[in-house]
Amino acid sequence: MDELLHEVRDGVATLTINRPERRNALSWDVVEAMLGRVREWRDDPDVRVVVLTGAGDRAFCAGADLSGMRGDSGHAALHDARGQLAELFDALWSLGKPTIASVRGYCLAGGFGLALSCDLVVAAADATFGTPEIDVGLWPFMITVPLCRSMPPKRALELMMTGRRVDAEEGERLGFVTRRVAVDDLGSATDELAATLAAKSPSVMRMGRDSFYAVWDQSATEALAVLHPMLTVTTGLEDAAEGIAAFAEKRQPRWTGR
Question: Which residues are catalytic?
Answer without folding.
Answer: 133
